[in-house]
């Protein structure tokens, strides 16, 4: 017969297992973020490759690429149905990482439309871009895509302003203006700025659309992004 202390300690250990696992995952992600190399996301790329081997891949999908914001985006395939959708997020990847892994992350799937959702890692931890550098990185990715998918669409979301990083607001506004100007010269490119849809009456990011950490969107925020993307796909090409 086990003592009450032994039983209590056993169940306490069971309860702590998920906490320890989450801490390990967080530490691994933090390590990848600070690695200044696109190879940091190799494990995630291999996981996608293994999943692809077991799946029947759709023809001409809408392919959403980016970092953590893409990984956490739930419900988009159902919202865009019957269009096939693939979500391919890589940790806290930046645009240069996406370009480096283009063949495996984009080219392999032969998408009808590429949707790029940049994250806060463009400005923090993994990189420290200004607006011009972000625009140049996106322009380089789109140029590579255009060489291989001349007739395919390329949709870019302006980075999302978050309550946690108010210091990024001016940079994001400048990047939005630069991207819109660039898109007017690229008929295949559409630039979407979701920030007005995520603001409160004072013009600041509303907490109702973000998770408690103030960085990542919640389901309500993703719904707004999804509807914006759906309306754009139904309207056809052209900058907004």
The global form is: globular
Low-confidence stretches: 6-28
| Count of domains | 1
Q: Please trace the helix and strand order, writing H or E for each element.
A: HHEHHEHHEHEHEH
CATH superfamily caption = SGNH hydrolase
CATH class: Alpha Beta
Summarize the structure in words:
The chain has 240 residues and is an alpha/beta fold. It has one domain: SGNH hydrolase (Rossmann fold). The protein has nine helices and five strands, in the order ααβααβααβαβαβα. The protein has a five-stranded parallel beta sheet with strand order 2-1-3-4-5, with helices on both faces. Helix 8 links the parallel strand 4 and strand 5. It is globular and about 45 Å long.
What's the SSE blueprint?
Layout lengths: L3 H31 L7 H13 L7 E5 L1 H4 L4 H5 L4 E5 L5 H6 L1 H4 L7 E5 L13 H18 L4 E5 L11 H15 L5 E4 L26 H17 L5
Parallel strand pairs: 1-2, 1-3, 3-4, 4-5
At a glance:
By secondary structure, the chain is of the alpha/beta class. It has nine helices and five strands.
Index terms:
Rossmann fold, about 240 residues
């Amino acid at each position: 017969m086990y003592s009450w202390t032994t039983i209590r300690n056993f169940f306490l250990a069971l309860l702590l297992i998920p906490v320890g696992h989450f801490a390990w995952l967080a530490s691994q992600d933090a390590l990848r973020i600070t690695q200044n190399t696109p190879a940091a996301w190799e494990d995630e790329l291999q996981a996608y490759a293994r999943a692809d081997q077991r799946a029947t891949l759709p023809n001409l999908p809408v392919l959403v690429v980016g970092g953590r914001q893409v990984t956490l985006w739930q419900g988009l395939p159902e919202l865009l149905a019957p269009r096939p959708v693939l979500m391919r997020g890589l940790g806290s990847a930046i645009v240069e990482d996406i370009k480096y892994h283009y063949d495996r992350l984009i080219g392999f799937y032969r998408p009808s439309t590429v949707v790029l959702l940049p994250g806060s890692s463009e400005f923090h931890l993994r990189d420290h871009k200004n607006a011009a550098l972000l625009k140049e990185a996106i322009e380089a990715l789109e140029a590579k895509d255009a060489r291989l998918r001349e007739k395919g669409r390329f949709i870019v979301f302006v980075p999302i302003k978050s309550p946690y990083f108010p210091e990024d607001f001016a940079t994001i506004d400048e990047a939005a203006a630069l991207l819109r100007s660039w898109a007017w010269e690229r008929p295949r490119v559409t630039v979407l700025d979701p920030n007005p849809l995520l603001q409160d009456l004072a013009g600041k990011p509303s907490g109702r659309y973000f998770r408690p950490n103030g960085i990542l969107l919640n389901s309500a925020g993703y719904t707004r992004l999804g509807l914006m993307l759906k309306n754009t796909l139904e309207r056809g090409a052209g900058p907004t």
